[in-house]
Design brief:
alpha+beta; Rossmann fold; D-amino Acid Aminotransferase, Chain A, domain 1; six-stranded antiparallel sheet; four-stranded antiparallel sheet; 13 strands
Length: 314
């Protein structure tokens, strides 16, 4: 028997167009499995629309702010509607790179050395930036990665290889967020672990990511031919096993449910370091999570249906 599913996509974030593509792909896949599916752009619906639709489950295909950050999850909790993916707390923590770093550090989970900066409520002067640059050089050295705290898809992120470039990278990040994470750059193999399940999650085959650009940025993520997903990842059995173990641990520490993706860099000593957690992974034709599921023998429509069933289990 099919379910009545409302797919929410689009929304107000800078990842809106990718979200619309994810939503369309999910809606078509669930429709092919016999479910009654409605696809809505979050920008064009109201709370009253959702209440009137009264779906059995909401499939969230939203990416970035106002969708992946716990806001829509909180609304659906109030409406008492089941939805796919993690809840409010996990979504809010994972979306905020500052909170992510703090929680990883508190739990003793391996991640690159970092510094955190909060510029809320202040006008950032050249002297402020100069002081930050001095601290970064002293504490982390060069190269580093500069990231705004609450943007997804590597938006506003820069790899900085010279001291002179730091000022521009910090200013660029501040265009997106008043909180910034600066990480020590780790030159290694980037892999991602797709995790599926609720109380006893399964880690799907790891994927190695190779970008045509300097790193796996927005262009590399969403343009054909700009990145390559290699399965199995070309890493040692030791690193593979450790990354899978860490993915499960991170998933549980952040209280994820349904599905999420944990990104790693494997350093020169074969150690996986956690980069970030994606609580609503992309579900387009180019996305990593469907590729990992396919490598585990699960086609896209089956994956979407499995995610719906996990939401109803909650």
């Amino acid at each position: 028997m099919g379910y009545k599913v409302l797919v929410l996509a689009g929304g107000r974030s800078r990842e809106r167009e990718v979200s619309l593509r994810s939503g369309k792909a999910v809606a078509e896949a669930l429709g092919s499995k016999g479910h009654e599916v409605t696809l809505w752009d979050l920008n064009e619906v109201s709370v009253g629309n959702i209440e009137a639709e009264r779906p059995e489950v909401v499939f969230l295909a939203l990416h970035g702010k106002y969708g992946e950050d716990g806001t829509v999850q909180g609304l659906l909790d109030i409406l008492d509607l089941p939805y796919t993916g993690p809840g409010v707390l996990a979504s809010a923590m994972a979306m905020n790179k500052v909170l992510t770093k703090k929680l990883l550090a508190y739990e003793g989970l391996p991640t690159a050395d970092f510094l955190l900066y909060d510029f809320h409520g202040i006008s950032v002067s050249e002297a402020d930036i100069e002081n930050v640059v001095k601290e970064i050089i002293t504490e982390l050295g060069i190269p580093v990665v500069v990231k705004p705290a609450t943007e997804g898809s590597s938006i506003g992120t820069s790899i900085v290889k010279t001291e002179e470039a730091l000022v521009g990278a910090l200013r660029a990040a501040l265009e997106y967020d008043r909180e910034i994470v600066v990480e020590k750059f780790i030159d290694g193999v980037e892999v991602t672990a797709a995790v599926l399940g609720n109380d006893d999650p399964t880690v799907l085959p790891l994927i190695e990511i190779v970008a045509e650009n300097e790193f796996y940025d927005y262009e590399a993520k969403y343009n054909p031919g700009m990145s390559h997903h290699i399965i199995p990842a070309r890493i040692s059995d030791r690193a593979r096993q450790r990354a899978a173990e860490l993915a499960r641990e991170v998933y549980k520490v952040f209280r994820c449910r349904g599905f999420s993706r944990v990104d790693f860099i494997i350093d020169a000593d074969d150690n996986p370091l956690v980069l970030e957690i994606n609580t609503i992974p992309g579900m387009t034709a180019m996305s990593l999570f469907p590729d990992a599921a396919r490598a585990a023998g699960m086609e896209f429509a089956e994956l979407c249906e499995r995610i719906v069933k996990l939401a109803l289990e909650k």
